[in-house]
Write a structure and sequence with these properties.
pyridoxal phosphate, globular, binds pyridoxal-5'-phosphate, 13 strands, Aspartate Aminotransferase, domain 1, alpha/beta
Amino acid sequence: MSRLWSEMTRRTEPYVPGEQSGHTGIIKLNTNENPYPPSPKVTEAIQEEVSRLHLYPSPTADGLRRAIAETEDLTEDHVFVANGSDEVLAFSFMAFFDPGRLIRFPDITYSFYPVYAKLFGIPYKEVPLRDDFTLDIAGFEQSEGGIILPNPNAPTGIYEPLDGIRKILEANPGRVVIIDEAYIDFAGPSAAGLISEYDHLLVTRTTSKSRSLAGLRVGYALGRPELIEGLVRIKDSFNSYTLDRLSQSGAEAAFRDAAYFREMTDKVLLTRSRSADRLGKLGFRILPSSANFLFCRHPGMAAEQLYSELKERGILVRHFSRPRISDYLRITVGTDGQMDQLIGVLHEVLAE
Ligand SMILES: *Cc1c(COP(=O)(O)O)cnc(C)c1O
């Protein structure tokens, strides 16, 4: 704390990202990255773009927005892009939530939401998930200032069917409802299909998980043109060029290579079900996952100890010391080979 800090700097409690180890040989199953590299078309596109780095990028990222719009069967004026979906979310808090009007999100959820709320001075209420970690829809009705929630939820991995999302939209007319779909490609249908019916729905997405581009930092939002225009106003009052040339061309190439995306996503889904079976045989209790991670606990060993034992043996997973979920580990779905190693090590640790 410094006396030179602004009030905003003093009140903020920054988000703590998962460990990013520089060690090679570490098996990284702690931040839900894709275990597979991006499409070779992404590499080509980025290499080609390098020769144009002396020029500013497009402030409106038209090529990338067109590729996303075509993928989603929407028009470009329904698409906003920024530097990671974290930036999209920050802009959304500024564009649609007001200081003095209470917003709501689940008590167990993406831990960046309270960080933004505090930063921007937006009061919030945490709506408790039910005992089985599903959403309590009634708790999200008639909010004063708006709603934000991930679907599938993080870190539980549980997917809320669109009927529930529709109820929340119906019960909050005139307030923006943000559905953070970071993991939707590993789950059921997207709320993006409801945009034509609801002008207060904003869907946010990322290329960090299903498109293997966590290192490129590209996120996007889908919604009615009025909402997109609001986001553009905030972005242009902050930084006109939040996405550089390499990000724009690389991400565009990723959206254009649908076959590669499908193939990698299918591999992750197959490994997810295989790994859940094997963890179940080791005695783990696993929540039903619609994401690229498994949220699980073992009745025979505390999660914190399991986390440390794994780390000592070169495997990183995520543990949250938070109420209701401190018994759980979040394990990213890696390659089959990585998951074999994880299961082998867990076998040893639990036998000791
Ligand atoms: C990973 C994640 C994000 C952030 O994605 P980036 O595009 O990498 O910033 C947003 N929301 C949830 C729920 C996530 O899990």
